[in-house]
Write a structure and sequence with these properties.
This protein has 195 residues and is α+β, with helices and mostly antiparallel strands. The chain contains five helices and five strands.
Length: 195
Protein backbone atom coordinates (compact mmCIF):
# COMPACT_ATOMS: atom_id res chain seq x y z
CA UNK A 1 0.00 0.00 0.00
CA UNK A 2 2.85 2.36 0.84
CA UNK A 3 4.39 1.65 -2.55
CA UNK A 4 1.09 2.55 -4.26
CA UNK A 5 0.84 5.86 -2.35
CA UNK A 6 4.45 6.64 -3.29
CA UNK A 7 3.59 6.09 -6.98
CA UNK A 8 0.50 8.31 -6.67
CA UNK A 9 2.58 11.09 -5.12
CA UNK A 10 5.09 10.90 -7.99
CA UNK A 11 2.34 11.00 -10.62
CA UNK A 12 0.50 13.88 -8.93
CA UNK A 13 3.64 16.00 -8.62
CA UNK A 14 3.86 18.44 -11.55
CA UNK A 15 6.91 18.21 -13.76
CA UNK A 16 9.33 21.06 -13.10
CA UNK A 17 9.39 23.80 -15.72
CA UNK A 18 12.49 23.41 -17.81
CA UNK A 19 14.39 26.55 -18.59
CA UNK A 20 15.19 27.46 -22.16
CA UNK A 21 18.91 28.00 -22.71
CA UNK A 22 18.56 29.39 -26.24
CA UNK A 23 15.32 31.42 -26.40
CA UNK A 24 15.93 32.96 -29.85
CA UNK A 25 16.67 29.60 -31.46
CA UNK A 26 13.68 28.12 -29.59
CA UNK A 27 11.35 30.77 -31.08
CA UNK A 28 12.77 30.30 -34.58
CA UNK A 29 12.35 26.52 -34.34
CA UNK A 30 8.79 26.91 -33.01
CA UNK A 31 7.83 29.23 -35.87
CA UNK A 32 9.48 26.83 -38.33
CA UNK A 33 7.49 23.91 -36.89
CA UNK A 34 4.25 25.89 -37.25
CA UNK A 35 5.10 26.83 -40.85
CA UNK A 36 6.01 23.22 -41.68
CA UNK A 37 2.77 21.97 -40.13
CA UNK A 38 0.73 24.46 -42.16
CA UNK A 39 2.71 23.62 -45.32
CA UNK A 40 2.13 19.91 -44.75
CA UNK A 41 -1.63 20.53 -44.56
CA UNK A 42 -1.66 22.76 -47.67
CA UNK A 43 0.44 20.35 -49.75
CA UNK A 44 -1.75 17.42 -48.69
CA UNK A 45 -4.99 19.29 -49.45
CA UNK A 46 -4.04 20.78 -52.81
CA UNK A 47 -2.15 17.67 -53.89
CA UNK A 48 -5.20 15.54 -53.14
CA UNK A 49 -7.61 17.90 -54.95
CA UNK A 50 -5.35 18.15 -58.00
CA UNK A 51 -4.86 14.38 -58.09
CA UNK A 52 -8.59 13.62 -57.75
CA UNK A 53 -9.55 16.13 -60.48
CA UNK A 54 -6.98 14.68 -62.88
CA UNK A 55 -7.95 11.10 -61.92
CA UNK A 56 -11.66 11.77 -62.55
CA UNK A 57 -10.93 13.37 -65.92
CA UNK A 58 -8.66 10.46 -66.84
CA UNK A 59 -11.37 7.92 -65.94
CA UNK A 60 -14.00 9.92 -67.86
CA UNK A 61 -12.05 9.77 -71.15
CA UNK A 62 -10.06 6.53 -70.81
CA UNK A 63 -11.16 3.96 -73.40
CA UNK A 64 -13.75 6.18 -75.13
CA UNK A 65 -13.44 6.47 -78.90
CA UNK A 66 -12.76 9.94 -80.32
CA UNK A 67 -11.65 11.63 -83.49
CA UNK A 68 -10.48 15.04 -84.61
CA UNK A 69 -13.13 17.47 -85.78
CA UNK A 70 -13.93 21.20 -86.03
CA UNK A 71 -16.21 23.04 -83.61
CA UNK A 72 -17.99 25.90 -85.40
CA UNK A 73 -18.99 28.53 -82.84
CA UNK A 74 -22.55 29.82 -83.00
CA UNK A 75 -22.51 31.82 -79.76
CA UNK A 76 -20.09 32.13 -76.81
CA UNK A 77 -21.18 32.75 -73.20
CA UNK A 78 -19.52 34.28 -70.13
CA UNK A 79 -21.02 33.56 -66.70
CA UNK A 80 -19.56 34.79 -63.44
CA UNK A 81 -20.62 33.57 -60.00
CA UNK A 82 -19.18 34.35 -56.58
CA UNK A 83 -16.73 31.42 -56.83
CA UNK A 84 -16.30 30.58 -60.49
CA UNK A 85 -16.15 31.95 -64.01
CA UNK A 86 -17.66 29.75 -66.71
CA UNK A 87 -16.88 30.36 -70.38
CA UNK A 88 -18.52 28.07 -72.92
CA UNK A 89 -20.01 28.06 -76.40
CA UNK A 90 -22.86 26.63 -78.42
CA UNK A 91 -21.87 25.42 -81.87
CA UNK A 92 -21.83 22.54 -84.28
CA UNK A 93 -19.58 19.53 -84.81
CA UNK A 94 -20.15 17.59 -88.01
CA UNK A 95 -23.52 19.29 -88.44
CA UNK A 96 -24.80 18.44 -84.93
CA UNK A 97 -25.33 21.06 -82.24
CA UNK A 98 -22.89 20.66 -79.34
CA UNK A 99 -21.62 22.57 -76.31
CA UNK A 100 -17.97 23.21 -75.47
CA UNK A 101 -16.06 24.62 -72.48
CA UNK A 102 -13.84 27.47 -73.64
CA UNK A 103 -11.68 28.14 -70.54
CA UNK A 104 -8.62 26.40 -72.00
CA UNK A 105 -9.16 28.01 -75.41
CA UNK A 106 -9.46 31.65 -74.25
CA UNK A 107 -7.08 31.43 -71.25
CA UNK A 108 -7.40 33.01 -67.82
CA UNK A 109 -7.33 36.71 -68.72
CA UNK A 110 -10.93 37.01 -69.96
CA UNK A 111 -13.19 38.97 -67.60
CA UNK A 112 -16.33 39.91 -69.56
CA UNK A 113 -18.78 38.84 -72.27
CA UNK A 114 -17.33 41.51 -74.60
CA UNK A 115 -13.83 40.01 -74.32
CA UNK A 116 -15.22 36.53 -75.01
CA UNK A 117 -17.06 37.83 -78.08
CA UNK A 118 -13.84 39.43 -79.36
CA UNK A 119 -11.83 36.22 -78.99
CA UNK A 120 -14.54 33.74 -79.99
CA UNK A 121 -16.81 35.42 -82.49
CA UNK A 122 -19.63 33.55 -84.21
CA UNK A 123 -18.19 31.48 -87.03
CA UNK A 124 -14.87 30.77 -85.27
CA UNK A 125 -13.59 27.28 -86.07
CA UNK A 126 -11.83 25.46 -83.21
CA UNK A 127 -9.95 22.15 -83.69
CA UNK A 128 -11.32 19.64 -81.19
CA UNK A 129 -11.48 16.01 -80.18
CA UNK A 130 -15.05 14.72 -80.50
CA UNK A 131 -16.18 11.91 -78.16
CA UNK A 132 -19.51 10.75 -79.67
CA UNK A 133 -20.45 8.36 -76.83
CA UNK A 134 -20.10 10.98 -74.04
CA UNK A 135 -22.72 13.56 -73.06
CA UNK A 136 -22.83 17.31 -72.58
CA UNK A 137 -19.74 19.49 -72.76
CA UNK A 138 -17.52 16.44 -72.16
CA UNK A 139 -18.14 15.36 -75.78
CA UNK A 140 -16.12 18.23 -77.25
CA UNK A 141 -12.58 18.84 -75.99
CA UNK A 142 -9.98 21.25 -77.30
CA UNK A 143 -7.48 19.35 -79.44
CA UNK A 144 -4.20 18.94 -77.58
CA UNK A 145 -1.16 16.75 -77.55
CA UNK A 146 -1.48 14.35 -75.80
CA UNK A 147 -5.25 13.68 -75.92
CA UNK A 148 -7.38 14.21 -72.75
CA UNK A 149 -7.04 10.72 -71.22
CA UNK A 150 -3.25 10.59 -71.57
CA UNK A 151 -2.81 14.21 -70.45
CA UNK A 152 -5.00 13.64 -67.38
CA UNK A 153 -3.19 10.42 -66.49
CA UNK A 154 0.16 12.23 -66.63
CA UNK A 155 -1.25 15.10 -64.56
CA UNK A 156 -2.52 12.64 -61.91
CA UNK A 157 0.87 10.92 -61.73
CA UNK A 158 2.67 14.28 -61.49
CA UNK A 159 0.28 15.54 -58.80
CA UNK A 160 0.80 12.41 -56.68
CA UNK A 161 4.57 12.52 -57.16
CA UNK A 162 4.92 16.22 -56.32
CA UNK A 163 2.55 15.98 -53.35
CA UNK A 164 4.39 12.99 -51.85
CA UNK A 165 7.75 14.72 -52.36
CA UNK A 166 6.44 17.90 -50.71
CA UNK A 167 4.98 15.93 -47.79
CA UNK A 168 8.26 14.05 -47.27
CA UNK A 169 10.31 17.28 -47.32
CA UNK A 170 8.03 19.09 -44.86
CA UNK A 171 7.91 16.04 -42.56
CA UNK A 172 11.72 15.79 -42.47
CA UNK A 173 12.06 19.54 -41.84
CA UNK A 174 9.52 19.31 -39.03
CA UNK A 175 11.39 16.42 -37.38
CA UNK A 176 14.69 18.33 -37.64
CA UNK A 177 13.12 21.46 -36.14
CA UNK A 178 11.55 19.43 -33.31
CA UNK A 179 15.01 18.04 -32.53
CA UNK A 180 16.54 21.53 -32.63
CA UNK A 181 13.85 22.86 -30.31
CA UNK A 182 14.45 20.01 -27.87
CA UNK A 183 18.15 20.93 -27.77
CA UNK A 184 17.25 24.50 -26.75
CA UNK A 185 16.27 23.39 -23.23
CA UNK A 186 18.80 23.65 -20.42
CA UNK A 187 19.66 20.36 -18.68
CA UNK A 188 17.19 19.45 -15.94
CA UNK A 189 18.30 20.41 -12.40
CA UNK A 190 20.08 17.63 -10.58
CA UNK A 191 21.43 16.03 -13.76
CA UNK A 192 25.19 16.01 -13.83
CA UNK A 193 26.93 15.50 -17.09
CA UNK A 194 29.33 12.57 -17.19
CA UNK A 195 32.98 13.71 -17.08
Amino acid sequence: MAHFEHLQARVARPAPNRTIARPVLFRIASVGIAVCGFSFFVVALFGFVTFINAWNRWQRYEGHPFHRAEFEVMQAYFQKSSRHISIYARGTVEGQQQWMDLERYVGTGVRSQEEVDEQVAAGTSIPVYFFPDLKGRARVQLASDPPPAEASKQQAVNAASHALTGLAITAVLMLVLLRVRRLCYAPAPGLIANP
